[in-house]
Specification:
This protein has about 180 residues and is of the alpha/beta class. It contains seven helices and seven strands, in the order E-H-E-H-E-E-E-H-E-H-E-H-H-H.
């Protein structure tokens, strides 16, 4: 089967990561869209009320692809509501999937994301990775949410994550190369 990238991006940053992955893997890519354009305040309300998102109808069948790479922002330490809703809808079809995010970043967050994904699907993810926007910010702006949430990632920023992206792709596509010993 052919790999697939499924992404949700509120600010456009995760869309840029999805495009970078698509260029490297040469696979199909689909965007999860909500029926109504999301406002920043609704992110907070959805988090408090643990609401599912209202997604636009999907025009693809996940079961025609594999492995699946999921991308979405992290909101208050959780996978963004639209991606969580998609995962719940497609959980039985997500038998071989991985998750990557471009997010603010915080210590221990990757493990929390992996645990959340494992509760949403019958299958654990093959790989979970987070690329920290905090690492792109000047030292005096790091760990300040207002700078990370307003930061717009550009193509050149992806180069700074080259090793992490390549490692994630190898893990997600099950092509991890063994080190050569002499």
């Amino acid at each position: 089967m052919k790999p697939l990238i499924v992404y949700y991006s509120h600010s456009g940053n995760n869309e840029k990561l999805a495009l970078e992955l698509r260029d490297r893997i040469a696979c199909d890519m689909y965007e999860i869209k909500e029926k109504k354009k999301r406002k920043n305040f609704s992110i907070f309300v959805d988090f408090l009320l643990k609401r599912n998102s209202r997604l636009a109808p999907l025009d693809f069948d996940v079961s025609n692809y594999g492995p699946i790479i999921l991308l979405a922002p992290i909101w208050a330490g959780k996978v963004a509501a639209p991606m969580r809703t998609f995962i719940k809808m497609e959980k039985d079809k997500l038998t071989d999937y991985s998750f990557i995010t471009l997010c603010s970043g915080s210590a221990g967050q990757r493990e929390k994301i992996a645990a959340e994904l494992a509760t949403l699907t019958p299958q654990k993810p093959a790989a979970v990775a987070e690329l920290w926007i905090n690492n792109l910010l000047p030292e005096e702006q790091r760990n300040k949410i207002r700078y990370a949430t307003n930061f717009q990632v550009e193509k050149q920023h992806m180069q700074q994550f080259d090793k992490e992206i390549q490692f994630f792709i190898e893990m997600a596509l099950h092509t991890k190369k063994e080190p050569v010993t002499t």
